[in-house]
Prior knowledge:
64% of the residues lie in helices and 0% in strands. The protein is mainly α. It starts with 21 loop residues before the first helix and ends with a helix. The relative contact order is 0.08.
Amino acid sequence: MERNGFVSHVHRKRPKGRPMPEAIRRANNAKSKIRSRVEHVFAEPKDRMGLFIRTIGIARAKTKIGLANLVSNSKRLLFLRRIAA
């Protein structure tokens, strides 16, 4: 990963029998902030729209996810327009 310029976003555990080092605690905290923002985006179609992918074939699954994204984005646009008015 490092060779290709990627950074790990996996949380690190506390060392056994020792307190968590301050640098690792701060890094885990920063990763949690990013993770919480990203997970909220995927929670919309999954929870509120009842999205559950149970299809045969990747093409049907992609279509179902694409339509759910379209509806989700449309609902978001209407919400933002309503607020702006």
